[in-house]
Amino acid sequence: MVKVRPFAAVRPPKNIVTEVAAPPYDVLNSEEALKMAGEKSLLHITKPEIDFEPMLPDHDPRVYDRAVKNFRDWQDRGWLVQDSKPCYYVYAQTMDGRTQYGIVLCANVDDYMEGRIKKHELTRKDKEDDRMIHVRIQNANIEPVFFAYRDNAALDAIVARYVKGAPEYDFTDENGFGHEFWVIADEGDIAAITEIFTTRVEAFYVADGHHRTAAAARVGEEKRAQNPAHDGTEEYNYFMAVCFPESQLKIIDYNRVVKDLNGLTPAQLVEKLGDDFEVSCRGAEIYSPSELHEFSMYLEGKWYSLKARPGRYDDSDPIGVLDVTVLSNLVLDKLLGIKDLRTDKRIDFVGGIRGLGELSRRVDSGEMKVAFALYPVSMEQLINIADSGSIMPPKTTWFEPKLRSGLAIHKLD
C-alpha cells in the first residue's frame, strides 16, 4: 500500500490566484512564458530566465539564483502564503464538459524507490538532473506531479462531500479549462483519507511528470544521506502530487509527423503500406481513427485510413498491442527508416490537444511530408503496462488538461 500525508501548502490568496497560477514549466517555451507572465505569475519562479534582457539560457546559474530570489520575494509580498496546518486538498479540472477530481497530497519517496509508484516511461538523466536542481535550490516542490490510482468508493465519497461546498479557488484559464480547489482541513477527514490510502490503495501510477517524480525522489534520498539524525518522518521524505481515480482520466492521442519519405514517392509509400494495412483514401476532409489498430495518414493533401491487417500485432503483449508499437514497427522503422524515436531528428510529435488540423497544417506548409494520427491509449492499457513492469514507447500518452502550477507548493522542511 502507498504512504501519504497532508501538508501545509504554500499558495496564493484567493483574490490573486488567477494572477499567480500558471501553466507547467514544460508547456511553454521561454518566449511564450515571457508574453504570458504578469507581475505576480509563478512563471517568474518556474521559468525565471524571462526576467533577463537579453534572455539567458534556462540553465545559467544566474537563472537559478533568480528562481530562489523570486520564490522568497513572492512569500515576502504575500503573493504566496503558507497554510497554518497540514491539509489535503481537492483539485477539480473541467474540459469539454468532463470534470476530474484529484486529491492533492504528499507521496512517499520510498514508494517510488520500491516500485509502489509505478512508471510507464523511461526518463532521461539530463532532464532529471535539471529538475533536481530546481527542487534542491528551492527546498520545495514548486509544481506537482500527476498520478492515477485505481478507483476507491470511500475516497470518492469524501471528495463528493467537499465539492458540494463553495471552492477556495474557481477560475477558467486561457484555454477555457475550468479549475476549482477545496481545502480539507477537518482532522477526521484528514485521518480518513490517510487511512484509506495506506490500507486500501496498492499503487500510484505516474500519468504525467516522470522526470519531476524521479527528481523529487532523488532529492529526498540526497537529504537523507546528508542528515545523520534521519528517522524517516522528515518532510523531505515526501513530495507533492495530485492523484486522480483512473476512471475519471482520459488519455488523448499523441501523433507523429515526418520530414521525408525515406526516398519513396508518395505513390510508392501508399503501395508498400498495403502489405500490412488495409488502405483507403478518405479525401481532403480530416479523418480520425475510430478504433484500435486503425491509423489516419495525411499525405499530399489527402487523408487515408490505415487498418492493420490481422497478424501484424500481438494482442497478448501489453507493448505489442499498442498502436504506437504497430506504427513504429510497420511504418516508421520498416518503411521510413526511423529506428529511434528519442533521437531521430526526422520525426516530431504533436499532442492531440492541437487537433488533427495541426497535422495537415505542418504537412501543407512543406515543413513535414507525412503525418500519422493514432487512436488513444486507454488508462487500462497504461495501468497494465505499469503493473507488468514494462515501458511504453516514447511519446505515447498525452493528458489534458495539464495541472495548473501555483495552486499549492510543498516545502521540504
Total number of β-strand segments?
21
> Radius of gyration from the CA trace?
23 Å
The proportion of residues forming helix, as a percent range, comes to: 25-40%
- Main sheet record: 9 strands, mixed
- Indicate the low-confidence ranges by residue numbers: none
Distance between the termini: 25 Å
User: What is the approximate shape?
Assistant: globular
Structural class: alpha+beta
Mean pLDDT: 95
Number of helices: 13
Question: How much β-strand is present in the residues?
Answer: 15-25%
Secondary structure topology:
Blueprint: E1 4-5, E2 10-11, H1 17-20, H2 30-36, H3 43-46, H4 61-76, E3 81-82, E4 88-95, E5 98-108, H5 109-113, E6 117-118, H6 125-138, E7 140-141, E8 145-149, H7 153-163, E9 169-172, E10 178-184, H8 187-200, E11 204-208, H9 210-226, E12 238-245, E13 251-252, E14 254-258, H10 266-273, E15 277-283, E16 294-299, E17 302-308, H11 323-333, E18 347-351, H12 357-364, E19 370-374, H13 379-388, E20 398-399, E21 410-411
Parallel strand pairs: 6-11, 8-12
Antiparallel strand pairs: 1-5, 2-3, 4-5, 4-10, 5-12, 7-21, 8-11, 9-10, 13-20, 14-18, 14-19, 15-17, 16-17, 16-19
Account of the protein in words:
There is one protein chain. This protein is α+β, with helices and mostly antiparallel strands and 413 residues long. It is built from 13 helices and 21 strands. The strands form five sheets. Strands 1, 4, 5, 6, 8, 9, 10, 11 and 12 form a nine-stranded mixed beta sheet that branches. Helix 4 packs parallel to helix 6 and helix 6 (125-138) crosses helix 9.
